[in-house]
């Protein structure tokens, strides 16, 4: 039996083995209230994409601004991301801009690493998976969390190298990790540790609750 907390919604999820009964699982979960309370306490406050908020972008602190006289498309200038147009829809414009930047950047980095590895990638897509930062399907489609654009570039590139390496080995064998090291240039230990330590924070951006 396993308990986990959804980084985005704060919902507590109970996972049971195939032979376990729901009644036994709920009884066990009721005895884990201290763990649940502690896990929810660690969850950072939501940081909506609203004027005046402070977010991460490329690992740097960026303030969100709004000026109705500015163009609707957000503009990054001197540590501030400013979008114009009506106040209504501001949050969606900020997120669309971040998603677009994530796709552009990681599409280019994926092509770079794929050429280096001598492999092809059918498609690069982005999403907002709660439990993983990237995935590589046997079809050659690689999908990333758009939230990687919030992380430092080295962290993002380490994740891209990891997924491209799956085009060589669809497993996590020693041979696979050797490909990751070859593509990235070294063992991405620090980058993996950064993602583990900051996962909840990255998922707090754009949340409303």
From TrEMBL:
<keyword id="KW-0378">Hydrolase</keyword>
<dbReference type="GO" id="GO:0016787">
    <property type="term" value="F:hydrolase activity"/>
</dbReference>
<feature type="domain" description="YgjP-like metallopeptidase">
    <location>
        <begin position="8"/>
        <end position="197"/>
    </location>
</feature>
<dbReference type="InterPro" id="IPR053136">
    <property type="entry name" value="UTP_pyrophosphatase-like"/>
</dbReference>
<protein>
    <submittedName>
        <fullName>Metal-dependent hydrolase</fullName>
    </submittedName>
</protein>
<dbReference type="Pfam" id="PF01863">
    <property type="entry name" value="YgjP-like"/>
</dbReference>
<dbReference type="InterPro" id="IPR002725">
    <property type="entry name" value="YgjP-like_metallopeptidase"/>
</dbReference>
């Amino acid at each position: 039996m396993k308990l986990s907390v959804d980084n985005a919604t704060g919902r507590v999820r109970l996972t049971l083995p195939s032979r376990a009964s729901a009644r036994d699982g709920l009884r066990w979960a009721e005895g884990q209230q201290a763990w649940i309370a502690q896990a929810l306490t660690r969850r950072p406050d939501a940081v909506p994409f609203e004027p005046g908020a402070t977010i991460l972008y490329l690992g740097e602190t960026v303030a969100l601004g709004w000026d109705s006289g500015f163009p609707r498309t957000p503009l990054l200038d001197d540590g501030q991301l400013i979008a114009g147009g009506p106040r209504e829809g501001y949050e969606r414009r900020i997120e669309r801009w971040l998603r677009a930047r994530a796709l552009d950047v990681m599409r280019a980095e994926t092509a770079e690493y794929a050429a280096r590895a001598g492999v092809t990638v059918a498609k690069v897509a982005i999403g907002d998976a709660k439990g993983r930062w990237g995935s590589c399907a046997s079809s050659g489609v690689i999908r990333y969390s758009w939230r990687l654009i919030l992380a430092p570039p080295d962290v993002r590139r380490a994740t891209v190298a990891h997924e491209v390496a799956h085009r060589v080995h669809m497993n996590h064998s020693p041979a696979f990790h050797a490909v990751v090291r070859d593509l990235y240039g070294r063992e991405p230990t620090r980058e993996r540790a950064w993602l583990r330590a900051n996962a909840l924070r990255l998922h707090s951006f754009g949340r409303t609750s």
